[in-house]
Each structure stands twice: as C-alpha cells, then as structure tokens.
Amino acid sequence: MRKIFLGAPGSGKGTYASRIAPKRNVPHISTGDLFRKNIKEKTGIGIKAKEFMDKGDLVSDDIVIEMLKERIENKDCQNGFILDGFPRTIQQAEKLAEIADIDIAVNMCVPNDIIIKRLSSRVTCKDCGEIFNTLTLQPKQEGICDKCKGKLIWRTDQEPEVIKKRLEIYEEQTAPLIIFYKDKGILHHVTCNDLYQSPDEMAQKILTKIEELANNI
Ligand code: AMP
Question: Quick check: pTM over 0.85?
C-alpha cells in the first residue's frame, strides 16, 4: 500500500504516520526528516536544504524529488510506504505519479489555531526525529526522547515568523494537492478539532479508516 499523508505543517501527519507505519509493516518516509538527517551529516543535499528550511521556504523540487526517488527505490519499500511531507507541490505530485502508484491520500483537516499552538510547543529529538509537544505529548523525562534518549530541541523553523510563512506556503503550494488527489478519486479526509486529542487515539482512527479502504481496493 502506497499512502500519502497530506496536511499543513503541524497537522500531525508525522506523528500519526510514525505510529501507523509499523502497524502496516511499511516504512514511514518523511522528506523533512531526510533533510534534517542530511543537514546533521553535512551532506551536499543538507547544505543546500538548510538555507531554504531555516527561512520556512520549500526546498527546490529537483532536490527533493531526486532524494525521494532514491529513498523509495530501497528494498524496504517493496510492499509500500507512507509518505509524510511529500509531495508538497503539484510538480512533485506529477513526478511521484511517474515513479509510483499511490493508493490512498489521507488529508488531515485541523483548524489553524490548533496548528499554531501545536507548532509553537513542539520539541523534536535531535537524534531520531521523534516529535513531542510540551502541551499535549510530553516526554516521560523533560527534554529527553522516550524512544532513543536523545536530546529534545526546538527546531529553527518554529519561530513565529517562520511558522506564519510555512502556513502561507502551504496554502499557496500544497493545498492545491487536495484537488489533485480528489480528482484521482483517492482522497480521504480525517478531522481533528481537539488540541488535546491523544495522538494514539487519532492514529488508531486513521488506521481503521486505512484498513477499511485497503479492503476495498
Ligand atoms: P516537515 O518536517 O515536513 O515540516 O519539513 C520541514 C521543512 O523541510 C519544510 O518546511 C521544507 O523546508 C522542507 N521540506 C520537507 N519536505 C519537502 C518537500 N516535499 N518539498 C520541499 N521542501 C520540503
């Protein structure tokens, strides 16, 4: 099953994808995480991407498409994958259609006020990329990742000005993908109106929906 999780930054797609992917036995592929790994390792991609990411801009299509293509050619993607944060532009979606058939696109519908609260209280593990939230998803030990014991940090793209820009870019460049996948007949919406809704419960709700849809494909 090849799935895409769509939604604004802070809509929870990464949090849910990381819980659902192991249950479906497929990798969770986050282009944001791939870029952060490249930045940490100071690769050519990382050096180019950092400039865009720090400002809240999208990394250019050719860089992200090449990186994604290489990732999904890996053996672990043979039975499918969940893409989180890709595609983010129509051009990326068109390219993706050339290299993989997507079965399901899940769109997270979350009001803007919840998104802003979530993004500004998010902390991310410096080592494994796991996401926590000082309001709704606190780590067991303050500042320490539950999964790998790495240090939890604020990301440079969480400054209020950068958050505003990321949301504007989402509206301009990524929201049109909702129509793109609706026209393909594979779009399904999931709504979260409650800032304090448990991520595990929400992930279960999405998983149930995906399993229903998968049975009908
Ligand atoms: P994310 O962790 O998905 O919120 O991504 C963090 C940042 O990485 C974004 O604000 C972009 O700068 C960059 N990025 C991630 N995925 C993409 C993509 N598909 N296209 C362009 N830029 C991306």
Answer: yes
